[in-house]
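Supplementary Text 2. Reproducibility record for the structural model of the 102-residue chain.

All settings were left at their defaults, and a single model was retained for analysis rather than an ensemble. We include the record here because the model underlies the residue-level annotations in Supplementary Table 4.
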Amino acid sequence: MTKPTIFTISAAWDDEAHVWSGHCDDIPAATDAPTLDELLAKISAMTIDLLPDNHPDVDPASVYLQLTVSREAAFRAHLLGGPKFDHFPIERDRDTGRDVDL
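Retained model, structure tokens:
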């Protein structure tokens, strides 16, 4: 059995272009796609093509691709755009001045 070879694909969402951009310097390969599934399919095809030239000793059947995904803009917008603590008015009953038994 051949030892697995794992290549890490770094993917980030491009909010302006509305695509996922991915690259792996070890293969080397870079591309973009509208979905992560399509990005992985493109990088997989590129890996099969580029592997013999860049890693002739690696068996293609032993290759595994690992995605590392970053979508910072959406996370930042979520943090900055969400409700703030001081935006919640607290409704209180009017104090009637009656005695309270504790």
